[in-house]
């Protein structure tokens, strides 16, 4: 069993990507993994002024302490990102930037979406750079969701059964990397 943290990064009023995030959450749970769902709307972090690590021990805001505990227990992160003007949502970038060491040596997987046909892949390419810099490089396979507004029902059930087939390779690859890095972390870290 893996501990998988799912980070969902849209604060928009009529956000559609939440349906894709619910779908991926259910897929990991159906494989027997424990998931933590982190929704930027629920955490409502202020714009970054001070990273978690910059607070004296025990003096970080409660929201950051809660997230730090979730992140430290995680074996990997799945980032669910929309595409805003060919880039990642600002709320997602803000959520990511509050932490650093808590991500180290854990893989990330990218679920990207858009209202159009490209499924958010342009944002995913920018996101890969950020994730690598944060120490949680992304797995090679993406799970892009084009036309997200019609791809899932509100509870994350696909409107087309092909989604179940398409997600399998993403899940398999994420599990492989998460298990490999979990074993490697038990042997010690390079720094």
What features would you describe in this structure?
A five-stranded parallel β-sheet has the order 2-1-3-4-5, sandwiched between helices. The protein starts with a strand and ends with a helix. It is 42% helix and 17% strand. The chain has one domain (3-187): Rossmann fold (3-Layer(aba) Sandwich), CATH 3.40.50. The chain contains seven helices and five strands; from the N terminus they run βαβααβαβαβαα. It is globular, with a radius of gyration of 16 Å. The protein is α/β, with parallel strands linked by helices and 191 residues long.
Radius of gyration: 16 Å
> What fraction of residues sit in β-strands?
15-25%
Q: Tell me the CATH topology.
A: Rossmann fold
Widest beta sheet: strand line-up: 2-1-3-4-5
* Dominant shape: globular
- What is the CATH homologous superfamily assignment? Flavodoxin domain
Distance between the termini: 26 Å
Number of E strands: 5
- Class in CATH? Alpha Beta
Largest sheet: number of strands, sense, barrel closure: 5 strands, parallel
Helix segment tally? 7
Topology:
Elements: E1 3-8, H1 17-30, E2 34-39, H2 40-43, H3 62-73, E3 76-81, H4 90-97, E4 108-113, H5 121-133, E5 138-145, H6 148-151, H7 162-187
Parallel strand pairs: 1-2, 1-3, 3-4, 4-5
Gist?
The protein has 7 helices and 5 strands; from the N terminus they run βαβααβαβαβαα.
Can you tag this structure with a few keywords?
7 helices; five-stranded parallel beta sheet; about 190 residues; Rossmann fold; 5 strands; alpha/beta
């Amino acid at each position: 069993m893996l501990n998988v943290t799912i980070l969902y990064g849209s604060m928009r009023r009529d956000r559609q990507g939440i349906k894709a995030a619910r779908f991926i959450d259910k897929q990991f749970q159906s494989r027997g993994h424990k998931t933590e769902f982190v929704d930027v709307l629920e955490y409502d972090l202020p714009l970054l002024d001070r990273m978690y690590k910059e607070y004296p021990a025990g003096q970080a805001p409660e929201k950051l302490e809660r997230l730090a505990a979730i992140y430290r227990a995680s074996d990997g992160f799945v980032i669910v990102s929309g595409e805003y003007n060919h880039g990642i949502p600002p709320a997602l970038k803000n959520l990511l930037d509050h932490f650093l060491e808590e991500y180290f040596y854990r893989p990330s997987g990218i679920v990207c979406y858009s209202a159009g046909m490209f499924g958010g892949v342009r944002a995913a390419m920018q996101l890969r750079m950020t994730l690598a810099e944060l120490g949680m490089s992304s797995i090679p396979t993406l799970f892009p969701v084009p036309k997200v507004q019609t791809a899932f029902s509100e509870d994350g059930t696909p409107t087309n059964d092909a989604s179940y087939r398409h997600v399998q390779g993403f899940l398999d690859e994420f599990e492989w990397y998460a298990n490999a890095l979990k074993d490697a972390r038990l042997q010690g870290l390079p720094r």
